Every structure is written in C-alpha cells, then in structure tokens.
C-alpha cells in the first residue's frame, strides 16, 4: 500500500508541474471539458505529462488490470458501393475479387473458432453491399445464437445499418430493432472516422454524414443496444476537427450512456487511394498513438470507462506502451481480420496466449472479458 501511495504521489507531483494540470484536476473534480480544453491537450507537446496524467486516471479506475476479449472478426463481404478513399479492402460489385460469405461459410468459421479458440465474441463487419437484404443478417444472427447463445454478436457499423435501411426502404431504428430481435448484442463504432462533414467529403463522400452516425448510435442506445465509439485520425483533419469529434462523442454519452468503450486508431495509408493520390503518405506513428490514447482517457474520464490500446493498426509493442498512457483494454484476438490486413501493414492475427504474455510483459494483470466488458477470468 505504501508503494502504491508513493507512486500516486509521484504522479501527482509530475502532473502539478505540467501545463495541463488545471485540466486534469478539473476532470478529477467532475468537470466536463470544452473545446478550448481539448485544443490545449491536442496542441500540447508534453506527451510525457499527458501519459502520466492519463495513467493516473486509468489506475484510479482499473488498478493493475488490463483486459482483452477472445474473439474473431468476420468480414462477411467486401462488396461495397461507398468507395472510401481510405480503404484498401473493398471491391465494387461484380469485381473478380469480390465475395460474400454464405450462411454455411459463416457458421463454419464460427464453429471452428469456438472449438479451436473458445471465443466469446464475434465482430461482424463488411462492405456496404446493396445486394444483401435484412433477412441475410437476421438468418446469420439467429443461427449463430441458436448454436452458441452465449457468444456476443458485436456487429455492423452505423453506416452498414444505414445501407440496410436504404435497401429495405425502412428506418434505421426499425432495422436496429429487427437485428436486435435476431441476436445482435452491440454495435462497433466504425463509420465515424472524424465526425466532421468537411473531412468526410474528402475521404468518404458517399458514406453517412456525421449527424447520421450520431443519430444511429443514439437510436441503438435507446433500444438498449450498447456500442463502441471510434476515431480514425491521421487523414486530412485539423486539430480543431479532432477536438470537436471528441466533444461530440462526449456529449452523446452524457445523454445516452450507451458507449462502452472508445477506440482511437491511426489511419494506415498503405495501398489506399489516399496514398496513391498523395494526400496522405504516412501513418501518424507511435507518438501520435500514445498522445491520442492519453488525451482520450483525460477527455472521457468518468464518461466512457474503457479505452482500447489499438494494437491492430499500431502493433503489439505500441499497444503495450498504450497501457501506460491510459488504455485499459488490449482489444481482441481478431482471428481472421481482413480489412486492415488488406493494407499489408502487418499481421493482424493474435492469439489469446500472445495477448496475455504481452500484458504481463508490461507489468499488468491480464483478464479476459466478455462482449460487455464483464470480467470472465483473471490470469
């Protein structure tokens, strides 16, 4: 206990000397941050003080525990008609490399993953495929739940929900209601990118607008479908647009309390249109990740508890460091991921044993969670 208290005192002493100390103490006292606060955090060059501050907040919530989920990612189709400039995964309808998994193929992958890895969650995402009716998704969800009722279905981005609604000429809320009845448990946060329509017009002009993403998330929360929130940074956005994104997420969370986690991840330009046209040549890098993780913990303290370390786009080593910059969750095992791997950036498969080892190496206690961040077991 003496050592713990000494470390806390040391952290507070360093925070006191930083140029963001007033923001940190306002957060600790329950104040909500404004645009000026967020801009100061984003414009600060003192990444070390940001990390110390964020880690202090993280430890107050989770102590020495770091969680992960044992899951697979199921990219059920790569057919897409939104043609996002930041995506290397999609193929237009009729392309020779396009695919859509059949119900049989989906079930084969799920059964194999359950038997081989003991998964507790399936992350289901794909392209915006105009040829798929809602019955496809309902049948997939029902059959998964029929065979493995305890597996959490964390599936379909807000933009995919919008696509299904357009195909069905229905409302997004009705689509969400039907999918929940079929077995959908929670929504991933994909499709947000940066919640600014100027940015969206530049990188994904055919995808849903910012207010639509926020509306669909609010509809999901009203139906007791909880979700993640995300931020893809490092394309063409300004510092102020990043700050506004964080505040929009925070304000919706104050209203609905439906976000379980926040996941900031850096854009990987490799093999994308944005790299080929020269608008973005390189990713934001490791220091950018650590800074965004730390700022996210400070901004969302007492609002969104869980913050993922984002190993998928930044690698295991950076994800380990992120645990010292405010992250409490390592993410998932993600066996079978195809979207980020399409960039060729790195291997995007990681076993549970490797995650456990990685968490231990950085000095934290690994614990496995379920779809709703409930701890299943400690290691």
Explain what you see:
47% of the residues lie in helices and 14% in strands. With 379 residues, it is of the alpha/beta class. The protein has one domain (40-378): TIM Barrel. The strands form three sheets. The chain has a four-stranded mixed sheet with strand order 9-1-10-11, covered by helices on one side. Strands 5-6-7-8 form a four-stranded parallel sheet. Strand 6, helix 11 and strand 7 form a beta-alpha-beta unit. Helix 4 packs across helix 13 (286-300).
Instruction: Report the end-to-end length measured between terminal Cα atoms.
Output: 22 Å
CATH homologous superfamily assignment = Aldolase class I
Which architecture would the CATH scheme give at its second level? Alpha-Beta Barrel
Low-confidence stretches: 337-346
SS element count, helices: 16
Q: Return the average pLDDT rounded to an integer.
A: 89
Total strands:
11
> What would you call the shape?
globular
User: Helix proportion of residues, in percent?
Assistant: 40-55%
**Proportion in β-strands:** 5-15%
> Which H/E pattern describes the elements?
HHHHEEHEHEHHEHHEHEHHEHHEHEE
**Strand line-up across the major sheet:** 9-1-10-11
Biggest pleated sheet = 4 strands, mixed
């Amino acid at each position: 206990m003496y050592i713990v208290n000494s470390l806390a005192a040391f952290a507070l002493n360093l925070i006191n000397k930083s140029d963001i100390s007033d923001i940190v103490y306002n957060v600790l006292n329950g104040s909500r941050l404004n645009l000026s606060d967020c801009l100061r955090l984003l414009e600060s060059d003192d990444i070390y003080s940001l990390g110390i501050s964020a880690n202090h907040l993280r430890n107050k919530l989770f102590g020495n525990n770091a969680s992960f989920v044992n899951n697979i990612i199921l990219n059920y189709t790569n057919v897409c008609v939104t043609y996002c400039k930041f995506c290397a995964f999609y193929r237009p309808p009729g392309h020779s490399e396009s695919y859509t998994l059949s119900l049989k193929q989906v079930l084969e992958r799920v059964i194999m993953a359950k038997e081989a890895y003991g998964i507790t969650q399936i992350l289901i995402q794909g392209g915006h495929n105009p040829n798929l009716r809602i019955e496809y998704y309902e049948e997939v969800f029902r059959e998964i739940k029929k065979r493995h009722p305890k597996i959490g279905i964390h599936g379909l981005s807000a933009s995919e929900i919008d696509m299904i609604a357009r195909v069905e000429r229905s409302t997004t809320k009705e689509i969400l209601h039907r999918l929940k009845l079929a077995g959908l448990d929670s929504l991933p946060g994909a499709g947000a990118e940066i919640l600014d329509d100027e940015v969206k017009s530049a990188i994904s002009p055919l995808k849903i607008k910012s207010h639509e993403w926020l509306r669909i998330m609010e509809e999901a929360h009203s139906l007791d479908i909880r979700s993640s929130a995300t931020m893809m940074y490092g394309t063409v956005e300004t510092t102020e647009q990043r700050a506004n994104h964080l505040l929009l997420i925070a304000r919706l969370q104050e209203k609905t309390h439906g976000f379980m986690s926040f996941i900031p991840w850096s854009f990987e330009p490799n093999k994308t249109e944005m790299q080929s046209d020269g608008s973005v040549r390189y990713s934001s890098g490791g220091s950018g990740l650590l800074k965004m993780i730390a700022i996210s913990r400070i901004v969302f303290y007492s609002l969104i508890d869980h913050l993922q370390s984002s190993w998928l786009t930044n690698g295991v080593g950076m994800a380990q460091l992120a645990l010292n910059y405010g992250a409490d969750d390592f993410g998932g095992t993600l066996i079978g991921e195809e979207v980020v791997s399409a960039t060729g950036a790195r291997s995007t498969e990681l076993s549970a044993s490797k995650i456990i080892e990685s968490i231990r190496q950085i000095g934290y206690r690994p614990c496995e969670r379920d779809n709703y961040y409930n701890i299943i077991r400690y290691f």
